[in-house]
What does this fold into?
Amino acid sequence: MEYIRIGKILKTHGLKGEVKVYSYTDFNEERFKKGNTIYFEIENEFLPFVVHSYRLQKGFVYVSFEGYLDINLIEQYKDTYLYFDKAERKALEKGKYYQDDIVGLAVYDENDQYKGKVISIEETVGAQNNMRIQLENGKEVLFPYVDALVIDVNLEKQILHLRWLGGIE
It folds into this structure.
């Protein structure tokens, strides 16, 4: 099974086993839906937990898990990363991509000149995400991941064409 990280438990909330989660996903309602299985990474193992309740408040996810509806049972999982099974991920509409689909793509400019490879997507607060691109010379640069600069994404060929910004290299 392949897992995708979707959040991290920050702390407990209340006495009935609810935890406050910093979410890494854009699909909170889908990922934390009641009855879904979320995997906790504990000592390099992925243990299944079933969602009992979910709510969103002030940008944070609050969730409880079946069998852990008491603060004393769930408290041990503070600072635990949460995952879901990648096989459960739904296809996105045309022109939309999951971040991990972009990582690893070869980057070309609008003149079909090879520039490098996407090595990560970095999220920012209040602004666009950035792609970390490793250039041919080994140098790493940050490039805005915005629709205005993305010409084409070809997952089949593993290629990303960008409107290259002057001065980036």
In short: The chain is about 5% helix and 45% strand. The CA atoms of residues 40 and 166 lie 43 Å apart. Residues 3-88 form a domain with the Elongation Factor Tu (Ef-tu); domain 3 fold (CATH 2.40.30.60).
